Amino acid sequence: MPPSITVVGLGSGGEDQLTLGTLKVLEQSARRYLRTADHPVVSDLKLRNITFESFDRLYEQLDSFEEVYETIAQQLIEASKRYTGETIIYAVPGHPMVAERTVQLLRQRASGEGVELKLLGGESFLDQAFTRLGFDPIEGFQLLDAADLTREHLRPRIHTVIGQVYDAFTASEVKLTLMNVYPDDHPVIVGQALGVDGQENILHVPLHELDRLESYGNLMLVYLPASTDERLRRRSFERLHEIVSILRSPEGCPWDREQTHQSIRRNFIEETFEAIEALDLDDPDGMKEEFGDVILQVLLHSQMEEETGAFDVYDVLAELNDKLIFRHPHVFGGENAQDAEEALQNWEQMKAEEKRRKGIPERLSILDGIPKDLPALPRAHKQQKKAAGVGFDWPDLDGVFDKIEEELQELRQAVKQESRERQKDELGDLLFAVVNASRFIKADPEEALAGTNRKFAERFKYIEEQLRINGRTFEQTDLLEMEAWWQEAKTRLLP
Predict the structure, then answer these.
(1) Mean of the per-residue pLDDT values for the chain?
(2) What is the pTM of this model?
(3) How far does CA 64 lie from the centroid of its chain?
(4) What is the SS3 assignment for 144-167?
(5) CA-CA-CA-CA dihedral for 44, 46, 52, 58, to nearest 10
(6) DSSP state for residue 11 in the 8-state scheme
(7) Backbone angles phi, psi at 158, to 5 degrees
(8) Could you give the percent of the chain with pLDDT greater than 70?
(9) What is the pLDDT of residue 257?
(10) Contact (Cβ atoms closer than 8 angstroms) between residue 55 and residue 32
(11) Strands 187-192 and 220-224
């Protein structure tokens, strides 16, 4: 006979919750192993002369739960080979297929080790949760592991059970994660030893007290009933998508229904610039609002395409997720990037490979791909960077400064004796040369000019303020006095 392991579930309470089949298997075997003796049924089984070898010692010897579970699985496989021909019983709390990592590991490894694995079910703690907490899982239900809980798991509209809340630290981590979605005083239900006579305890506590209870243990769970309170979904992307789809529906807003890609195209540009302004001002409240307005534009345009059946916003997210993973092989793959420059090279290489795989034809010019509606200043910067990438560039900053002086001289000459059109051309040449300087000193020209604009506005407003203080108007002052106030503003208003 091949080596074999039979995994049995001990139920969630005393011997009354054992199945008859499990009890028979336990009575007929002499090689019994137990993940943990910290279970109500163990003392009942001892009265029947059914004893086990427990793995509790590993919890003290090893540094992490995963190490414990890995070791248990390996030792069981070794025992099955050592006692070939005997029935190896491995008993776990509850049901073997519910929140039992060691069983997952055995299922992954047994076949490859030539070990036959059998599973015999038992009543899980979920059976008692459904009964004692009084909810029907068909209404929508999720079971989550306290150790791996994240905000993305939480869905307030369905019943949620969080298991394996072993101790106060784990309870604290669960509390903090839940507070990302639920208010601090949201009522939660704590179940301890559900269905176990003399040990069961069901507590109703506000969320903020979840880590302040008197006791914790491996039979403790946290339950949050399903809620239709839309305030609990205000931080979810799904709720935003739902709101936008309602606004565009026949029962929604007449103005939103009438909009097309072209009618709100300008809004996208304006909202982006407002978000940039909030960034430049280092204004967190402004960022929070303006970033939302930019996301709204993405949702609106995506909703229009969803209505035609072309794609929806989740396709947009899928495309973005795939792109980020594919273009960062040094993060999500086996490659490495030593610094930011090498990471950028990876990005460009993977970007080209991505387009090749999609069958997108190669660009005829290196300068292709720059958005045609990009403002002139950042467009000049991008063009120069692309040309510099193939070696068409000044050798150093001195050459750039010489070019600026040359273009400035040509502009002066054009202003003296050439047409308005030539003057405009020469001004453009000068600005283009200045953008080259910004690239060499690694300063974004748009950001640099935006900063100067802000300084100019602040200093000019200072002049206006001085005029108001003195009860005068611009007509009642002269350039000399305004220049003096300007210089005063430069010293008083730090850049």
Answers:
(1) 90
(2) 0.66
(3) 26
(4) EEHHHCCHHHCCCCCEEEEECCCC
(5) 70
(6) B
(7) -125, 155
(8) 95
(9) 94
(10) no
(11) antiparallel
Nearest to 400 by CA among 438, 426, 367: 438
Angle between helices 313-326 and 340-357 (to 10 degrees): 120
pLDDT band at 480 (very low <50, low <70, confident <90, very high): very high
* Confidence band for 454, pLDDT divided at 50, 70 and 90: confident
Long-range contacts of 68-77 (CB under 8 A, 24+ apart): 69/101, 69/102, 69/105, 70/105, 72/35, 72/102, 72/105, 73/102, 73/105, 73/106, 73/109, 76/5, 76/33, 76/102, 76/106, 77/3, 77/5, 77/106, 77/109, 77/110, 77/113, 77/115
> CA torsion 185→187→188→194, rounded to 10°?
140
- Average pLDDT on 94-118 reads 92
Tell me whether strands 141-145 and 159-163 are parallel, antiparallel or unpaired.
parallel
H/E element, 314? helix 313-326
Distance CA 141, CA 131 (A): 14
> What's the whole-number mean pLDDT along residues 269-273?
90
Pick the more confident residue, 296 or 335. 296
Burial tier of 94 (Cβ tally within 10 Å: 0-12, 13-18, 19+) = buried
| Phi, psi dihedral angles at 180 (to 5 degrees) | -70, -20
Q: Which residue type is seen at 29?
A: S
What DSSP string runs through 450-486? HHHHHHHHHHHHHHHHHHHHTT--GGGS-HHHHHHHH
pLDDT band at 216 (very low <50, low <70, confident <90, very high): confident
- The answer, yes or no, to whether residue 362 has pLDDT greater than 70, is no
Edge-to-edge strand order for the sheet containing 31-34?
Answer: 53-54, 31-34, 88-92, 4-9, 116-120
Residue 372 predicted with pLDDT over 80: no
User: What are the distances in angstroms from CA 118 to CA 3, 107, 110, 186, 352?
Assistant: 11, 9, 10, 43, 51
Q: Which letter does DSSP use for residue 395 in this model?
A: S
Check residues 493 and 457 and name the one with the higher pLDDT.
457
Structure confidence at residue 418 (pLDDT): 93
CA dihedral 156, 159, 163, 166 (to 10 degrees): 60
Q: Which residues are paired to 187 by β-bridges? A: 206
Helix count (H) and strand count (E) of the chain? 19, 10
